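Q: A reviewer asked whether we had any structural model of the full assembly, not just the individual parts. We don't, so I'm hoping you can provide one. Inputs are below.
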Amino acid sequence: MNFIRRNWLYVPLVAMAVFYLIPTYVMLVTGFKSFEEVDLKTMWNLPRGIAFDNYIEAYNKLSPSLRNSFMVVIPSTIISSILGSINGFVLAKWKFRGADFIFPLILFGMFIPYQSIIIPLVQFMRAIGISGLPSLAMAHIIYGIPITTLTFRNYYAGLPQELLEAAKIDGADMLGIYRHILLPISIPSFVVVLIWQFTAAWNDFLFAVILTGNQQWPVTVALNNMAGSQIIAWNVQMAGSLLAALPTLLVYIFLGRYFLRGLLAGSLKG
Amino acid sequence: MYKDKDRYLNILLISPSILAVLIFIYGFIAWSVRVSLSKWKGLTPDYTWNGLKNYIDLFADPRFAVDVKNTLIFTGVFVFGCLILGFLLAVMLDQGLRGEGFFRSLFLFPMAISYIVTGVVWRWLMNPATGSRTSGLNLLFTYIGLDSWVNAWHTTPKWGMAAIALAAIWQMSGYTMALYLAGLRAIPHELKEAARIDGANEIQIYRHIMIPLLAPVTLSALIILGHMSLKVFDMIVAIAGKQLQLDVPAIYMWQATFDGLFYARGAAIGILLLVSVAILIIPYMHYTLKTEGQT
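A: Here is a predicted structure for the entire assembly that you could use as a starting point for your response.
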């Protein structure tokens, strides 16, 4: 395609960029307006100055739930990533009889609608006496196993068998191979999986709203209730939305390359 | 081959995960099926056998009929919108333009955000208020002279679900673009060159060469997006709350179970959702794992 014709492509691309940026624009400008300036009728106008009223108000309302989110998401992300790495190693390089049957069984768990397991989940947690944040963390760990296992399995399966054979000839046992050979080169996969799990758990709503009470709400539930209430103004909701989105957005901005890789793994193409 | 102490260690290492999956996925599914065949209504579990009554009642339930219709509208608009938009964006970004990385990141970033955040923001963008209280996108339309575009969004009778799908397209079309972009990059350059030498124009190249070669990507995207739309829940709750007009099976399941304490009906809806997802996903998994084994 010649130079001029190719440059025309910027017109639709920029138009689409505007479409993707509209919600972000509204979130940002509303957040920076002062309380006096906020009005639905001027919601598209730029702020006259920089004020933090909305962010402070939203932060005061959401800070306990932001803390709850971090307390659940960080440990469950780390634990399900470690489990996924071990499972992936076993299923790719250290197979047992039936491994090829087990793998799709685990994988299917990635796609199930959680509505089909939520009643037993609640009953089960009640029966074993785990509630609130620990029960939510447990749900994230267990239902995270399929995707973490998939990502690691695909990564390890792509490594040459000679790598393992050489180590075996040198007398290494399987655990040694995992620890000294595979683990050090799995760092990129760990980053992919950690980001993916962090995002999924942070953004979860269904498990959170069912397994936690109002003292332990993570930020998605708190924000949704804030939006549903008549008392809290829309501008504070906008600022709150940005606060709730910020952790995953920062992860995306700084580690976006890995985020994309995690996404593609989620479609079974590793 | 392996040393003796390694023989069973692999099974030992993976068994906690297998056990968790067996209990929390398959055990719980079986348990849900059992609840769906019971008369459980109320706070205390009641496993009295009720046969398929809950399922039969659902198929006769006008609310469930609305849910199915809404899901179909949502799925149609959402999947079609994501595929078209994702494909076009991928093709444009595949032309080797400057700033490709910037646009790619921009189109993809909504993926990082939760449905709840998207829903809360779009709730205000799609504010249906009229007259002096007009705001959101409707207000923007009047600014730029597109008064005829002003509409009632998700409160539109019949087609309200399409407005919800619009917010979902905003969130997921970048993902579809990423899938297509990966697919386009995997097609050897020589194919395009050869077609060009044979006198094909760009449109013909895409129609007769690229789109057919991208069929597996389209299938993946179709199935991933399709199964997402069967599960749609958070975004509707955040945009519109739980109102009958925008009801879907996931919301009905929620209300039947946790608001109405009709656990047996809730479980039946959950299982129907599972079956519809399984119909999409199991053949897809089978196909993907089989082709993977061949390479």
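A: Points you may want to mention in the reply: The first helix of chain A runs from residue 3 to 7. Chain A has a mean pLDDT of 89.
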